[in-house]
Amino acid sequence: MRDCYDTCSIISEFRDGKLAVKGNPEHPITGGFLCPKGALLPRWFQSTERLRAPLIRTGERGSGEFEEVGWDEAIALVADKLKETIESHGSESVLVYQYAGDRGAVNYAFPLRLFHYLNTAMLDHGICDRAGQEALRDVYGTAVGLDPEEIKNQKLIVYWGLNPFWTNLHGFMLAKKHSLEIWTVDVVKTETAKRSHRFFQIRPETDVLFALAVAKLMIENELYDGEFVRENVYGFEEFKNYVKPLSLDYVIKETGLSGEEIEDFAFGFAEKRGIIHIGYGFQRSLSGGEAVRAIAILPALVGHRFGFIYDMKTIDKSYAEGAFLRTRPARRIPQMKLAEYIENGEIKFLYVYNSNPLASLPNQNRLRRALKESDVFVVTHDIFLTDTALYSDVVLPANTFFERLDIADSYYHRYVALNEPVAKLYGKSNSEVTRLLAKALGIESPHLYETDEEVVRKILEINGLSWKELRRRGFVKVPEKPRKWSTPSGKIEFCSQRAISRGLSPFPEYRKRKGKYPLKLLTPTYRMTITSQYHNTYGMIDPNLYMNPLDAGERGIREGDEVEVFNDNGRVRTTVKLTEDVPRGVVILYKAFWVKLLGWNANFLTADETVEGYGDGSAYHSAWVEVIRVGA
Ligand SMILES: Nc1nc2c(c(=O)[nH]1)N[C@H]1C(S)=C(S)[C@@H](COP(=O)(O)OP(=O)(O)OC[C@H]3O[C@@H](n4cnc5c(=O)[nH]c(N)nc54)[C@H](O)[C@@H]3O)O[C@H]1N2
Ligand SMILES: Nc1nc2c(c(=O)[nH]1)N[C@H]1C(S)=C(S)[C@@H](COP(=O)(O)OP(=O)(O)OC[C@H]3O[C@@H](n4cnc5c(=O)[nH]c(N)nc54)[C@H](O)[C@@H]3O)O[C@H]1N2
Ligand SMILES: [Mo]
């Protein structure tokens, strides 16, 4: 149910007013243990900070001045305002903004039914893994790779721009359990890198060159699977000619890797027929799309049909969303451009659920300014009074996945889980609120009043899965059907026709990136939070800036100093920790904590440019800053 690779099977019990959780030992991937943040879920569920009554804003946006009202009044107000906005500005001035706060089929998608029915504008998701998705489609026709249960049959897994010891613990333990050799390619010596057999420490946004150089060495030394490539690859000869003139000296200079490291990678990867888990984290940069296209070629060179792990799609959940209720094609608004659309006055009504954009979107100063200066009516449905809720006109309390029926698939493995309610505390589910709004709007369509169980059972039926089996075991595996590559040529495309049709180069291209400020700011995932979630309930965050001692020395900065980190988007103050795990020229702040608790977060500094040609994917990591000591 959480926005996390593992989608654990959890056994929960509510007794004497207390929740207890443990891992389901029967589950083949997530097994009998929970990660450190999963184990603390009772604190989240029973938090005294959970919203209990709807709120209507009485003060300035962000001031925190609200009045508690009853559900009837709140729903009536939202429905009236929705109706009024559609009448005076048209249905496309209404936008529903949602993400993966809850990934249950019903609670992720059912509210969208209402907005489809009303023909409103819809969000085009680009916040997380979009550029890589497009890139993998260019090469394989799909971003769905290997079933992680196949890990047991492999010798080598490369974690490329991923920190699974923090973000995909069960996946990492699976590789360990089956004694795979583990390699990590990262800019930073992460906890995963420290536990890997080999660590390739690369300069930011130079992955394209590294992957192309590895491909070149594999081709020129005939380390690749010639027969597989002849039969299944489109554009191999052209690709071979493309990498031929690539100078290794240039690659060494740009990536910071040594010649031996590049050779070791090529020879070792070919010998052990490696697979690659391609990270979501690292592709969130302007170079992300091109990098993933280049990396995707490597497992095919050693003869894997789908030798990468990126995304998983096991079941068709579109029934829950109900796009069939539309009578007009949707106007799609790129997620990363929310501020721009608000500034232009194109959005007059914003309905947010399952997301905390006032922590998670980049360039927070711009977004907050846009909201303050516009007349957009904002409704937020959340479990807590988040930063987004603080800027809203109406706040509706949500309940949690412990309190309702749903099913969830995973973006990592092939198991679908049944989620059964264990207790009921406060708030209403996403689907309940949808039904209440539909009723208040006088909508008669029966599709808006289906129960959660009806939707769940229908999705199972569409996918040929058994409700009985799911109820018995709590999860079912969706078997993989034999599949081919759905590219224009029907082969793995080293020369991508799909990319060409979008005006991109037929082969992955390297572009040198440099910012106006000297230090590259990376804002990766933190171990004890899920993006902004759990900050308020666990209180376990790490707001320090991590910096290389040499960069600090040049600036007269010492361990523990208070510093100001700034660029043209914003300015934040925090303390410094010095570490050689972070290379020169790079600094780190962990992503997206609650601004109302910390006073700031990394997204006051991040870039809101998007990866052009790759679905307007986010480019958080293409940000540069300067750091000075406070009082210097
Ligand atoms: N604990 C925890 N787990 C989570 C989440 C969470 O918030 N907390 N979030 C979930 C979600 S939504 C997602 S998308 C995933 C993200 O999971 P990951 O992909 O593991 O996430 P990140 O830590 O953001 O990024 C991984 C690494 O990319 C590296 N990196 C940055 N730039 C470059 C580059 O140019 N080249 C290379 N090679 N590496 C680079 C960073 O140093 C970082 O270590 O995790 C999921 N799991
Ligand atoms: N700087 C920087 N920023 C990043 C990233 C980065 O790498 N760097 N990573 C990005 C990535 S990968 C992602 S996926 C996004 C995530 O962006 P968001 O989805 O906005 O992030 P979350 O903090 O997980 O917010 C989810 C919200 O949903 C609420 N919620 C949970 N369950 C329910 C429910 O059942 N009903 C309702 N109504 N609400 C619920 C939670 O309380 C929480 O407030 O952030 C992005 N932001
Ligand atoms: Mo994500």
Task: Furnish the topology, listing elements before pairings.
Elements: E1 10-15, E2 18-23, H1 36-39, H2 41-45, E3 55-57, E4 66-68, H3 71-89, E5 94-98, H4 105-117, E6 121-124, H5 130-140, E7 156-160, H6 164-167, H7 169-177, E8 181-186, H8 191-194, E9 198-201, H9 207-220, H10 226-232, E10 233-234, H11 236-243, H12 248-255, H13 259-271, E11 275-278, H14 288-301, E12 308-309, H15 318-321, E13 332-334, H16 338-343, E14 349-353, H17 357-360, H18 364-373, E15 377-382, H19 387-390, E16 394-397, E17 406-408, E18 415-419, H20 430-440, H21 452-462, H22 467-473, E19 475-477, E20 492-493, H23 497-501, E21 519-522, H24 535-538, E22 545-547, H25 549-554, E23 562-566, E24 571-578, E25 586-588, H26 595-598, E26 610-611, E27 617-618, E28 623-629
Parallel strand pairs: 5-6, 5-14, 6-13, 7-8, 7-11, 8-9, 10-20, 11-12, 14-15, 15-16, 21-25, 22-24
Antiparallel strand pairs: 1-2, 3-4, 3-16, 17-18, 18-19, 21-28, 22-25, 23-24, 23-28, 26-27
Helix pairs in contact: 3-20, 4-20, 5-14, 9-12, 9-13, 9-14
The structure holds ligand MGD (2 copies) and molybdenum atom (MO).
